[in-house]
Amino acid sequence: MTDVVPPAADLPFEPTELATYIAAKLCHDFISPAGAIMQGLDLMNDPTAQDMREDALNLVAQSAAKMVALVHFARVAFGAATTSESFAGAELQGLVEGLVKGGRATMDWQVSEPSFAKPEARTLINLAYLTVGALPSGGTAVITGERTAEGLILRGVAEGARARLKPEAETGLRGHRLTDGLTGQWIQPYWLWLTARDAGGRLDLEVEEGRVVLTAVLPG
Predict the structure, then answer these.
(1) Which of 43, 82, 109, 204 allows an S-S link to 56, with CB 3.0 to 4.6 Å?
(2) Pick from 187, 186, 129: which is nearest to 156 by CA?
(3) What is the largest CA-CA distance in the chain?
(4) Which are the contacts of 194, defined by CB distance < 8 A and separation ≥ 6?
(5) Torsions phi, psi for 88 (to 5 deg)
(6) Are the CB atoms for 125 and 75 separated by under 8 Å?
(7) Could you tell me if 112 and 148 are in contact, meaning their C-beta atoms sit under 8 angstroms apart?
(8) Local structure of 216: helix, strand or coil
(9) What predicted TM-score, i.e. pTM, was given to this entire model?
(10) Is 148 exposed, middle or buried (0-12, 13-18, 19+ CB in 10 A)?
C-alpha cells in the first residue's frame, strides 16, 4: 500500500508542546547508557567486586560510546546546535551507523550524493534510522539518495521477514496527532514528516508484508 502524505494545512501542535515530546524522547534514549555507566562505576568502586573490574570497565566504555553516538546523532537529527550548514554524506553515514551497529538489521548505505544542506541532512539521517528500526527481527535496510529533476530523493527500503512499522510510527509519518499509543514511538516519525514538510517537500510511505519503504522528496 502506498500512502502519499499530503501537507497539513495547520500543524496540530504548539512549538513548546513539540519541544516537550522531543525532550522526553531524548531523555528516554540517554537514560539507558547513562545508567549503565553509573552501574559500571559502582562496580569498579565496590571493594567486594574487584573480580568484575574488567567487565565493569568494558560496560562503562561501551555505554559511553553509545551515549556519544546518541548525542552526535541528536545534534543533527533534532537540533540546530551545530554551526555547519552542510554535511558530508560519509559523516551522516557515520552518525547513523553509530546508533544501529550491533543490532539485528544490516544497513546498506548507497547514498551517492557527497554533501547535503542542513534540512536535507536532518531528513536523511532520521529516515535512515527509522528504516533500520522497521526491522526488529533483522533484515536489510537500503538507504539511497540522489538528485534528479524532481529534486533530492531520499529513500529507505527495509526488507525482512517481519519488516513493519508500529501504529504510532505510521501515524507520525502521516503527519497526524497521536491519539493512542506511546509518544516515544511517534515523535521521531512525526519529526521526519515535519522536517520534509518544512523543507517544502513531501514524505511517501509504502507498507506491505515484509517490506517498508520511506521516501522523502525535497526541492532541489
Answers:
(1) 43
(2) 129
(3) 66
(4) 11, 18, 175
(5) -75, 145
(6) no
(7) no
(8) strand
(9) 0.90
(10) exposed
